[in-house]
Every structure is written in C-alpha cells, then in structure tokens.
Amino acid sequence: ETGVTQTPRHLVMGMTNKKSLKCEQHLGHNAMYWYKQSAKKPLELMFVYNFKEQTENNSVPSRFSPECPNSSHLFLHLHTLQPEDSALYLCASSQGSTLRDEQYFGPGTRLTVT
Amino acid sequence: AQRVTQPEKLLSVFKGAPVELKCNYSYSGSPELFWYVQYSRQRLQLLLRHISRESIKGFTADLNKGETSFHLKKPFAQEEDSAMYYCALREETSGSRLTFGEGTQLTVNP
Questions:
Q1: A87 at interface of B, judged by CB pairs closer than 8 A
Q2: What is the CATH number of the domain that holds B8?
Q3: Domain count within chain B
Q4: What tens digit of pLDDT does each residue of B22-52 get?
Q5: For the CA atoms of A112, A85, A69, A26, what is the dihedral angle to 10 degrees?
Q6: Which residue from B minimizes the CA distance to A41?
Q7: Closest residue of A to B89, CA-based?
Q8: DSSP code of A82?
Q9: Which residues in chain B touch residue A45, judged by CB atoms under 8 angstroms apart?
Q10: What is the pLDDT of residues A53-72, one digit of tens each?
Q11: Do residues B4 and B98 make contact, with C-beta atoms less than 8 angstroms apart?
C-alpha cells in the first residue's frame, strides 16, 4: 500500500491496558506527526519527529509515549489511558518540516477507552 | 497563541449555488494558510494553500491580511463537494506545526 498507513484502524482498550498504534509511510518522507481529533474539537498536534528525532511535544500527557525507530515508522504507545482519550488518532508525514512541506495524512485509528 | 476559527459547523447549499466557507485566524506574523478536505470515508487531504494561488476543483481562497481571513469559495457547488473542510494555519517560524479550525461540514443538495 502506498502513502501513509495506520494500524489498527479501530481499537477498544480498558484503562489498565497497554497498546500501541502504528504508522508507516511509504513516501520517503523525513518528518512524521501524531495528531488527535476529538469530537467537536479541532485537530490537535501531539508530536513531531524529524529524521527520527522528536522536535515537538505539544504538552501531551506521559501516558502517551511516541517512538520513531526510523523515518518510515512511527508508534504511539498507550498506557493507563482515560475515557477522555477516546478519539481519532491521525498520523501524517511530510518531506521535511519546513513551511512549504505538505503533510500527508493516514486514515487514522479510532480509539475507544472503556 | 495563534488560533483558527471556522464559524459555521454545518453549511448546506443546493447544487449550482455559490458556496463560501469562512475561516478567520488570529496571528500577528505572516502565516501560511491551508484548506484541507475530508470526503466521506477518505483520509484528510490538502485542498489548497494560499501561497500556490491556484484553483483546485473550482475552489479558490484568498488570504486577506487586513481582515485576517482565508475564506474558501466556489461559484457553482457540485454534489461531490460534500465533505468536511478544515482551515489550517502554519506560523512562519514554526516549520511543521499546523493549527486547525474545527471544520465545516458542507452538504451540497441535488
């Protein structure tokens, strides 16, 4: 599959569970992003990785732990989440992280925390 | 902090009618503005950006720095334009950070 892929597409987890979201991009990009889209709220940037290095953490709680082993893969490790963390989590990538670099989005993972 | 406002959560027009989706921003510098679109069951994708000054699928948007607006317009709406539209802003100094509005759901009725 080309573009940006995300797995799983849907995830239901309890508050004591540990799970991971995976994002993979097949575009040869160097920057990757995690966004959170909650109901009735704007899309919020969570993390930015550029050449595998985290360059931005938008005050995200520590129960969300990102990992970027290489420029093609990005993970979001989840533990002891709260029901309010239920949302659509979108991954994106771009060639670089400059003003003119277009971000390409994945389809998202719909997370429900019970 | 920068902010993007889309005052209309829902907008409904008839096919062939003009459509305008409003976007206002608050930022003191020189931002780059974008419109993203998400069609039903498809991923979020870039529609257009102000620096390109191009028309995509008949849509145009002009950055008005005096009014701090970046409204999206199309003279004759089509049913396939029905989608969720997000306005987004990138600061000149932020590099990668995009700030999104809450989105407007456009429905074009036959």
A1: no
A2: 2.60.40.10
A3: 1
A4: 999 998 778 889 999 999 989 999 999 888 8
A5: 60
A6: B102
A7: A99
A8: -
A9: 97-99
A10: 888 888 899 999 999 999 99
A11: no
Which of A10, A26, A105, A109 to mutate to test binding with chain B, by most B CBs within 10 Å of its CB?
Answer: A105
Contact (Cβ atoms closer than 8 angstroms) between residue A34 and residue A89: yes
pLDDT level of residue B90 (50, 70, 90 thresholds): confident
A109 in contact with B at a CB cutoff of 8 Å? no
> Beta-carbon neighbour count of residue B101 at 10 Å?
25
List, edge to edge, every strand of the sheet that includes B72-74.
Answer: B19-21, B72-74, B60-61
When CB atoms are compared, the residue of B46, B92, B102 closest to A102 is B46
How far is Cα of residue B1 from the mean position of the Cα atoms in its chain? 20
CA distances from B19 to B47, B54, B86, B90 (A): 15, 17, 15, 25
Q: Which residues contact A31 (CB under 8 A, 6 or more apart)?
A: A48, A49, A50, A51, A93, A94, A95, A96, A97, A101, B96
- How deeply is B5 buried, as exposed, middle or buried, from its count of CB atoms within 10 A (0-12, 13-18, 19+)? middle
Evaluate if residue A99 carries a pLDDT over 70.
Answer: no
pLDDT at A76 over 80: yes
Nearest Cα residue in chain A from B98? A45
The boundaries of the domain holding residue B73 are 3-109
Give per-residue burial for A69-90: e unless 16+ CB within 10 Å, then b. eebbebbbebeebeeebbbbbb
DSSP class of B23: -
